[in-house]
Amino acid sequence: MSTSEKLVNVVQGEYHISADPDCVMSTVLGSCAAVCLTDPSQKIGGMNHFLLPHGTGRSGEDVRYGAYSMELLINGLLKHGARKHRMVAKLFGGAKMLTQLRDIGDSNVAFAREFLQNEGIPIASESTGGNSARRIRFWPSDGRVKQFIVPGAVDRVAPPCPGARRPGWRNRAVLTCAALTPYPRAAPSHQRPRKAGRGGSPRGVRRSTSGQSGARGRPGVHHGAGPIPRQGGKRREDRKRARHVITQGA
């Protein structure tokens, strides 16, 4: 490709028309199909790229469908001075990219052939079918086309299980489906922290009383640090006795 040439990418669901001798149209085809039309006398041409042959209802009026895309391409060439009886077509694409699905590529190619035959436009050459993608470059002013086969396997490999280990990941953590869950799971009831009640004691645990303490009044069970607290005058007597012992010891 020379520096003066202008590359135009025709993506899925589009078409392009040009009479510029420096224009080069390019697209990549899998199961999709592309029709390159040229009027050699007028030196004008165009290319489309459609995904499916037909659509139903109002959705059929979309460039993604071959029936609508072909009408736009031919009518656009006629508006720029081309004539249908002088048009020559070249057909590409229609590969079978996924073996587990129906052959969409074959349906696209069959539709394009039938449509061009009904319009009286001859097919000068074609490269269709197979199991490989194609890269097409089209010069609309003179109808030249170059095709490049895209190497590599056609069938898409299913993504690995998120929990499967990869080579070289010996000491790395591997994400699982549970780790990607947006909402964390609730902790079991026996692991949940107890909320503090009145006076700072956990709910469900009674405050210590004289002679008894522990959870729900069970005798002999104490959940705090230090001696069992007592109530009323006995607590004051214990404090006085403790001070007296400390004074004698000093």
Keywords:
single chain; 250 residues; alpha+beta; 60s Ribosomal Protein L30, Chain: A; five-stranded mixed β-sheet; four-stranded mixed β-sheet; 3 helices; 11 strands; 19% helix; elongated
- Identify low-pLDDT runs: 153-184, 209-217
Give the averaged pLDDT, no decimals: 75
Q: What string gives the helices and strands in order?
A: EEEEEHEHEEEEEH
Strand content: 15-25%
- What percentage of residues falls in helices of 4 or more residues? 10-25%
Quaternary state, please? single chain
**CATH architecture label of the domain at 6-149:** 2-Layer Sandwich
- Overall outline: elongated
Side-by-side strand order of the widest sheet: 2-5-4-6-7
- Main β-sheet: number of strands, strand sense, barrel status? 5 strands, mixed
Number of helices: 3
Separation of the first and last Cα atoms: 105 Å
CATH class of the domain at 6-149: Alpha Beta
Total number of beta strands: 11
What would you report as the Rg, rounded to the nearest angstrom? 41 Å
Q: What is the fold named in CATH at topology level of the domain at 6-149?
A: 60s Ribosomal Protein L30, Chain: A
What structural category arises from helix and sheet content? alpha+beta
What report would you give on this structure?
This protein is of the alpha+beta class. It has a domain of 144 residues: 60s Ribosomal Protein L30, Chain: A (2-Layer Sandwich), CATH 3.30.1330.200. Helices cover 19% and strands 25% of the residues. The chain contains three helices and eleven strands. The longest helix has 18 residues.
